[in-house]
Write a structure and sequence with these properties.
Shape: globular
Distance between the termini: 23 Å
Low-confidence stretches: none
Structural class: mainly beta
CATH topology of the largest domain: Jelly Rolls
CATH class of the largest domain: Mainly Beta
Order of helices and strands: EEEEEEEEEEEEEEEEEEEEEEEEE
Mean pLDDT: 95
Number of helices: 0
Largest sheet: 9 strands, antiparallel
Length: 221
C-alpha cells in the first residue's frame, strides 16, 4: 500500500521534530518520527529521526536505492563497525546490515535517496573532519558528499553568532536539519530539531543570531 507524507516536493515544509511523538517501528525497541514518506510504509522513500533504545537491534535488511545516516547522539553499530555521535554514513545500493545499539542512539535517516550503481560507501567522522571557509564571513562548511555524475550535495554548515548568508536560490531544492542553535530567514525561526524543506526554485537568506550548525542537502529534488 502506497502512503504519502510531505511527498509534494513543490511545497515548502517545516517540521519541529521536538514536538512530535515517537512512533513504533517493526522492532519493539526502535522508534521513529517520519518527516516525509512516499511508497510503502516499510519500503518507501522516507526521511526520519530514529531512536534505538539501549540494547536494541534491528533485523538484517538490504537497502535498495541506498541509505543516508547522520548519528545525532549515542553510538550506532552494525557488523561493519561502531559509529558514534557525529558520524555520517552513506550506504550504497545493495548494502545490507543488521544494525543495533548497545547504549542507545538517535539518528537522522534518509532511505532510498542514494540511488545508483557504483556509488561509494562513505564514512565521515564530522567531529574530526576539517571545516572549510565558505567565502561568507562567519559561515564554515564541512563537505559530506558530492559527485560530478550525481546532482545532490550534502554538507554541514556552521554559523557563528550574528552571521548571515546572502540571498541564494535552490533550482533543485534544499533540505535543512538544524543540529544545534537556531537559524532564521524571512519566513521564520528554526531551532534545533527543525527539519525544513525548500522546493525547487525557492530562495532565502539564512542568518543566525546565536550561532547554529546545520545539515544541508541540495540539488536532489
Amino acid at each position: 500500500m502506497t502512503e504519502t507524507l510531505n511527498a509534494d516536493f513543490t511545497e515548502r515544509v517545516v517540521v519541529d521534530t521536538a514536538a512530535m511523538d515517537w512512533q513504533s517501528s517493526p522492532s519493539p525497541t526502535v522508534w521513529r518520527k517520519r518527516l516525509d514518506l512516499l511508497g510503502g510504509a516499510e519500503s518507501g522513500r522516507v526521511t526520519s529521526v530514529v531512536r534505538y533504545d539501549a540494547g536494541s537491534q534491528f533485523h538484517a535488511h538490504p537497502h535498495p536505492r541506498g541509505e543516508e545516516i547522520l548519528v545525532l547522539d549515542g553510538v550506532f553499530s552494525d557488523e561493519h563497525g561502531d559509529w558514534p555521535k557525529g558520524t555520517y554514513l552513506l550506504n550504497p545500493e545493495g548494502f545490507e546490515h543488521a544494525p543495533f545499539s548497545r547504549e542507545g542512539c538517535v539518528l537522522f535517516v534518509k532511505l532510498q535517496q542514494y540511488a545508483g550503481t557504483g556509488r561509494p560507501h562513505v564514512v565521515v567522522e564530522t567531529d574530526k573532519a576539517g571545516w572549510q571557509a565558505s567565502g561568507v564571513e562567519g559561515v564554515e562548511i564541512l563537505p559530506l558528499y558530492s559527485a560530478a555524475d550525481h546532482p545532490e550535495t550534502m554538507a554541514l554548515a556552521r554559523f557563528a553568532a550574528g552571521a548571515s548568508y546572502p540571498t541564494h536560490d535552490h533550482p533543485r531544492g534544499e533540505e535543512i536539519f538544524v543540529l544545534s542553535g537556531a537559524v532564521e530567514d524571512a519566513f521564520g525561526r528554526y531551532p534545533a530539531g527543525t527539519w525544513l524543506r525548500q522546493p525547487p526554485g525557492s530562495a532565502h537568506a539564512p542568518r543566525s543570531a546565536e550561532g547554529c550548525t546545520l545539515y544541508v542537502k541540495s540539488g536532489h529534488l
